[in-house]
Write a structure and sequence with these properties.
Helix content is about 65%, strand content about 10%. The chain is of the alpha+beta class. Strands 1-3-2 form a three-stranded antiparallel β-sheet. Helix 1 packs antiparallel against helix 4. The mean pLDDT is about 90.
């Protein structure tokens, strides 16, 4: 069995939660403070910080302190490994579906010629 880069596991695990996906969508528009990111979510701040930690551990988000405020932003290129993997899988499945289409087309022609 092939070994996969564990960063993909962390990335897809982080993307598996709707709260974290909403945070990423917000950060796609630009940097934001933790309190701004937490505001639309109905949860305690420690719970929300757990979501941010998961995003940081996956390498999708970075944060820095600015005075007493923590500012978060997307990590440039963080989605590249996942995007590359998905592109590879897409190519594999497109090839398989093309071969299946060819097989069905040839099978249909053979059956048409037999009658």
């Amino acid at each position: 069995m092939a070994k996969f880069d564990s960063t993909l596991d962390h990335c897809f695990s982080a993307l598996g939660d709707p709260t974290r996906r909403m945070v990423l969508q917000r950060l796609a528009r630009g940097e934001a403070s933790v309190s701004e990111l937490a505001e639309p979510h109905d949860m305690a701040l420690p719970s929300f910080m757990g979501h941010l930690k998961k995003l940081e551990d996956a390498g999708l988000v970075t944060s820095r302190k600015l005075g007493r405020t923590r500012i978060c932003k997307l990590t440039p290129g963080a989605f590249t490994p996942a995007k590359d993997w998905l592109s590879e899988q897409s190519a594999v499945w497109e090839g398989r579906l093309d071969r299946l289409d060819d097989y069905v087309t040839n099978l249909t022609k053979e059956r048409t010629n037999e009658t």
